[in-house]
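User: Please predict the structure of the protein below. I'd like the answer in structure-token form so I can feed it into my own downstream comparison script.

Assistant: Understood. Taking the following sequence of 184 residues as input:
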Amino acid sequence: MPMTIENSCPNGEAPLVSEAPREYELRFLDPARVRFFEHAGHTRMTLLEDRSWVKVTVMRAQPLTDPSRYYGVLDGAGKDIGMIRDPGHLDAESRRVVEAQLEERYFTPRVLRVLSVKEEYGAVYWRFDTDRGEKEVVARNLRDSLQELGASRVFLTDVDGNRYDIPDLNALDPRSLSIILRHL
């Protein structure tokens, strides 16, 4: 924790050392006291017997390694309200509202097969079979659009910022793996 030295010394000796004021303190929200609602296209949140926020954003603190725990809640200005350790303890309606928002925010189709790939004028055109159906994806600068997450997991980000997850390169069929390896 950062320390500051006080300018005034009560006895004229060595300066006093004290903790600096905290700029950020993590606030854990009790899921039993939190309610989420949909209203006019926004997510609202109420802390029972405390206050309400007209517009909130829910984000996963660890979207890849622990996506079902530790949800951060931000107000409409993007400032932290708090963190929910275990969203599984929210009431059913609040869970539904939160999961719908997260599904939209973290829309990440899982690639099942690579159907084709073509490079043209610095762009790479992929055709995937995913768990959400067939997708045609355009990526620029393949090195910047691919992110390796571990030994065999890869994320591809397209020109629109959409992400596609290849959870295990080694689990792909031989043809798909061959196509990917030719373009990596």
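That's the full token string. The longest helix spans residues 92-105.
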